[in-house]
Specification:
This protein is of the alpha+beta class. The protein has 3 helices and 3 strands, in the order βααββα.
Length: 72
């Protein structure tokens, strides 16, 4: 891994208050920036930058289309 302060996917899930399965969906679909993946014999292991906790605490990644401007 790089020299950033990294945490496990489980720690990330606990810190942002989201289910582990939701976090794994985000990680597998590249919705969290700066994630490092290490290939282990049992499969990929994800490490998340600790700084990402601030960005995702209490909310999820931005997804979908931008909202249309309301017209009168």
């Amino acid at each position: 891994m790089g020299d950033k302060d990294m945490i496990s996917a489980k720690e990330f899930a606990d810190l942002v208050g989201r289910p582990y399965q939701t976090i794994m969906y985000w990680l597998r679909n590249d919705l969290v920036p700066g994630v490092e993946v290490v290939q282990e014999s049992r499969g990929p292991v994800y490490f998340v930058p600790r700084e990402a906790v601030k960005q995702f605490k209490g909310k999820g990644p931005k997804r979908g289309r931008p909202l249309k401007a309301k017209t009168k």
